[in-house]
Amino acid sequence: MKTHAEPPFEAQVPHIEESVGMVIRELRLRERLTIAQVAEQAGLSRGMLSKIETGSTMAGMDTLARIARALGVPMAVLFSKYDGASAAAQHVRHGAGMEVVRRGTRSGHTYHLLAYDQGPVKAFEPFLITIEDDTERYPTFQHPGTEFLYMLEGVVEYRCGQQTYTLEPGDSLTFAGEIPHGPVGLTRCPIRFLSITIYPRQGE
């Protein structure tokens, strides 16, 4: 019976979940803290923290921030083992992007982060955004940088400043992130689109 083997190079590079989990475990042991102590400080169950440490699940940004505070380190330290020296590219498998809960998002709105900057300063953020059903209220966002949207599925009415655009599969929209923006109506669900934000460099 033949078995499927992963390519040797890919097998040598830990996935983001494993890398983050290893760092959390090393930091915890270095400080001689138990899983129970860190979990309590971070407001998590011991079982969840154990899963994060073993790489069997990936926490959202809010959870990682709380773990970092419990360990007394900047959140960027948790990604220190997942750097460019270990691989030529970041490979995020289908459905494996870090799920992020962003301020203003609602139930049925899912954000999967598709790449992870290694340093404390973000250069860009690519999200796969899924909206499963309609809702009476929609989040409005403002942030630095330039944002690029690319529709994959569904039809959405998307407001940018005073203008509203009907976005269908294959459509794109580019705008300054400082302009208030967000969906205002879902014409056909589910909605799936890429959102890529390019942040300004320091000093610009």
Descriptive report:
- By secondary structure, the chain is an alpha+beta fold.
- The chain has two domains: 8-79, 434 Repressor (Amino-terminal Domain) (Orthogonal Bundle); 98-198, Jelly Rolls (Sandwich).
- The chain contains five helices and seven strands.
- 19% of the residues are buried.
- Mean pLDDT is 79; it is low at 1-13.
Separate helix tally: 5
What gap, in angstroms, lies between the N and C termini? 59 Å
Instruction: Please report which band the strand proportion falls in: under 5%, 5-15%, 15-25%, 25-35%, 35-45% or over 45%.
Output: 25-35%
Low-confidence stretches: 1-13
Helix content: 10-25%
Assembly of the depicted chains: single chain
- Give me the CATH superfamily of the largest domain: Jelly Rolls
The number of strands is 7
In round numbers, the mean pLDDT is 79
Estimate nothing, just give the exact number of structural domains: 2
SSE pattern, N- to C-terminal: HHHHHEEEEEEE
- The coarse silhouette is elongated
- In the CATH hierarchy, the architecture of the largest domain is Sandwich
Radius of gyration: 19 Å
| Biggest sheet overview | 7 strands, antiparallel
Just give the CATH class of the largest domain. Mainly Beta
Estimated structural class: alpha+beta
- Enter the CATH topology name of the largest domain: Jelly Rolls
Secondary structure: elements and pairs:
Layout: H1 8-12, H2 16-30, H3 35-42, H4 46-54, H5 61-71, E1 98-100, E2 109-113, E3 124-131, E4 146-160, E5 163-167, E6 172-176, E7 181-198
Antiparallel strand pairs: 1-2, 2-3, 3-7, 4-5, 4-6, 4-7
Keywords: DNA-binding
GO cellular component, one term: cytosol
Organism: Cupriavidus necator (strain ATCC 17699 / DSM 428 / KCTC 22496 / NCIMB 10442 / H16 / Stanier 337)
